[in-house]
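Q: Focus on the chain.
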Amino acid sequence: MVAGNRYSSHLSLTANDRVITPLPLFHMNPQILSTMGTLFVGGSLTLVDRFHSRSWWQEVRAKETTHFHYLGVMPAVLMGMPEQADDGAKIYALSQGRKNDQVYLD
């Protein structure tokens, strides 16, 4: 509960926020941060079965996501995807995660 409270406070989460995570619930990030932080403020949480790079942004838009969580190579994979027709569509999302330093050392 303490971590969820701190997380929601750090990101200024409110009951109007919609958080999405592709991370499994056996991982600490979605257990403590995504789930508890969202529940603490009464927001909405979407759990997707896993990270699907080809449909990630469509999923984020469809769920009207305001925050999403990632790990490791997810940002590099998303940046490497071919452009899509709806890439210019507005996404109001804040990402939260830790980068994998090896991904950015080309």
Observations:
- The helical segments are 2-10, 28-41, 56-62, 74-79.
- Residues 101-106 have pLDDT under 50 and may be disordered.
